[in-house]
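**User:**
If convenient, please work through this fold.
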Amino acid sequence: MSNSMQHNEGTNIGAPTYPARPAWSSPEFDEPARGGDQHPDDRGCWYESARVDTWAPAETDKAIEVFVQGFRHDNGDDWRDLVRASGTAPGFVGGVALELADARRLAKALEAACDLLEGLR
């Protein structure tokens, strides 16, 4: 998460004015989005799950991390939750953020490509 987001006094995540935390989220990754110059309709909180998996590829020192992320607006206008994979482009700030159906399809396609590479298909 970005450390540049402002944390205003009185905006504790547990406060009644914050949107409910998703069941998959981990409190240590809560990131309020309530900057002083932010439009009221854009205020809310970013949520992330614990890391599903983390590993460092052989050719880079930046780990690949897989987790779930979502944003809950104070006004209830929520975005779809995403499966994120960060650090997927060694040497670059890169990643993938996909909705559930696309993440599952990508997982199957990657497995099929690995099988093809190993001569199993």
The longest helix spans residues 100-117.
